[in-house]
Amino acid sequence: MIYTSNYNSPIGKLLLASKGHQLIGLWIEGQKYFLHNIKEEMQKNDDEMILIKTKDWLNKYFNGEKPNISDLDLAPIGSDFAKNVWKILCKIPYGQVTTYGEIAKEMAEIMHKPKMSAQAVGGAVGHNPISIIIPCHRVVGTNGSLTGYAGGIDKKIKLLEHEKVDIKNIKAGK
């Protein structure tokens, strides 16, 4: 059974999902790929401990604190490739950004390949099922553009501004 709970954040309503006491999803209402990998029955349960811990984590985050991702037991659903990309995302420090190209270089090393497609990495980043906590909003285009955020570029900008990222040199992409 998958348990869900809602959270009202400064960027909109969020849906949290857990399975087996692990967080498997955090989506911004209306985002692209909303509930994308969820195939099982869901039931609202505001008393599920991981969902309570996630709300506490989000409270800290939106209050300007820097909670550790490791404080939560995450179990995002996806391919091994996507899971490796999401692990890299978790290493991007609060208030900093990286590029799809840099992540592609790291993935090439992990996969023992001479190079990796930034577009393939972008697909995995875009399908991240645990928004905000797995910080896909901290990834920008190689040319410094604010490309691709499943929750919308406006929300990506708000999250980066919340983290005090200097976005004046980052330009809105498609």
Q: What topology does this entry show?
A:
Elements: E1 2-9, E2 12-19, E3 22-28, E4 42-44, H1 49-62, H2 80-89, E5 98-99, H3 100-110, H4 118-126, E6 139-140, E7 145-146, H5 153-162, E8 171-172
Parallel strand pairs: 1-4, 5-6, 7-8
Antiparallel strand pairs: 1-2, 2-3
Helix pairs in contact: 2-3, 2-4, 3-4
Protein architecture, described:
The protein is of the alpha/beta class and 174 residues long. The protein has 2 domains: 2-71, Double Stranded RNA Binding Domain (2-Layer Sandwich), CATH 3.30.160; 80-172, Arc Repressor Mutant, subunit A (Orthogonal Bundle). 31% of the residues lie in helices and 20% in strands. It is built from 5 helices and 8 strands; from the N terminus they run E-E-E-E-H-H-E-H-H-E-E-H-E. The strands form 3 sheets. A 4-stranded mixed beta sheet has the order 3-2-1-4, with helices on one face. A two-stranded parallel sheet has the order 5-6. Helix 2 crosses helix 3 and helix 3 (100-110) crosses helix 4. The N and C termini lie far apart (37 Å). 34% of the residues are buried.
Low-confidence stretches: none
Contiguous helical run count: 5
Q: Roughly how many Å is the radius of gyration? A: 16 Å
CATH class of the largest domain: Mainly Alpha
| Helix/strand order, N-terminal first | EEEEHHEHHEEHE
User: What is the CATH topology assignment of the largest domain?
Assistant: Arc Repressor Mutant, subunit A
Strand order, biggest sheet? 3-2-1-4
General form: globular
Hey, roughly how much beta strand do the residues contain?
A: 15-25%
CATH hierarchy: architecture of the largest domain:
Orthogonal Bundle
Percentage of residues assigned to helices? 25-40%
CATH superfamily of the largest domain: Winged helix-like DNA-binding domain superfamily/Winged helix DNA-binding domain
Main sheet attributes: strand count, strand direction, barrel closure: 4 strands, mixed
